[in-house]
Write a structure and sequence with these properties.
Blueprint lengths: L6 E4 L8 E4 L9 E6 L2 E6 L24 E3 L6 E3 L5 E3 L12 E3 L4 E4 L2
Antiparallel strand pairs: 1-9, 2-3, 3-4, 5-6, 6-7, 8-9
The structure holds FE2/S2 (inorganic) cluster.
């Protein structure tokens, strides 16, 4: 059986300093989100470690603080390091988001690698 990685988006759809959610199964809730920071894409499950399964954005695609320097869960304000997914402040300090591995081809297409 051949395994084709699922294409998420083109890198152009994800400007530097922005986040974007993806509703892969079309149930109306994003399962994961991607952050573009300093040329690198980071993807995490949209599930806050404070209350596993709790979605984190305050509106669609809004996963970051105003300065776009941290990921924020808008339920109770947990703040996460973008690069590591570690909660650095808030009710689940020390816990981590679940990273989702991505890959990118030369044409700028972004894929899920799992
Ligand atoms: S559910 Fe995310 S901080 Fe409480």
């Amino acid at each position: 059986m051949s395994h084709n990685p699922q294409r998420l988006c083109a890198i152009d759809e994800l400007p530097e300093g922005e986040s974007k959610g993806f509703d892969l199964d079309g149930d109306g809730q994003d399962e994961l989100f991607v952050v573009h920071r300093e040329g690198v894409l980071y993807a995490y499950r949209n599930s806050c470690p404070h209350q596993p399964g709790a979605p984190m954005a305050w509106r669609r695609h809004a996963y970051l603080n105003k300065e776009a320097s941290l990921i924020v869960c808008f339920a109770h304000g947990a703040q996460f390091d973008i690069e590591s997914g570690l909660c650095i402040d808030g009710p689940c300090q020390g816990a981590s988001l679940t990273a989702v591995p991505l890959s990118q081809d030369r044409d700028g297409n972004v894929y899920l690698t799992e």
